[in-house]
Specification:
Layout lengths: L1 E3 L9 E6 L3 H11 E9 L9 H11 L2 E4 L2 H6 L3 H13 L3 E3 L1 E6 L27 E5 L2
Parallel strand pairs: 2-3, 3-4, 6-7
Antiparallel strand pairs: 1-5
Helix pairs in contact: 1-2
Amino acid sequence: AAAETGSGDAGGGADGIIDGIGGDALAVAAEQLLCERASIIRYGSIAGPPNEQRLAAAVKRLCLQVKQDSLESFLQVRDAAHQFQDALGLMVQGKYQPKAWHVTSWKEADQCLKEQPVWTEHATQLRSGRIGRIILRFD
């Protein structure tokens, strides 16, 4: 997910999030990372179902748009790769600020979904209190 830099946002500054994790993190991300009238695209819940009541409260308070989608339909968009590259270019230029805690090669993405010892070079999404998303680097 990427956020446009700016001030005066009700929650965070992100214009939207694309979430396949679900669980408690989705409601927390909606409450803390999104600005008013932002979008949430949900395509899965690998961490379990989100707290729908808490998510609905954030949606109402911030006037968020929520769309249920699938990863398959996202990947079938003709220019999905081009749009993603454009978003990465805006991040490099500093026009968008990513709301993420780790950038990793797509080849190592599976390691982020496994428990990892503290000494490892791999980040993991499975730590208590972890909020944020992993940005995959396609190299």
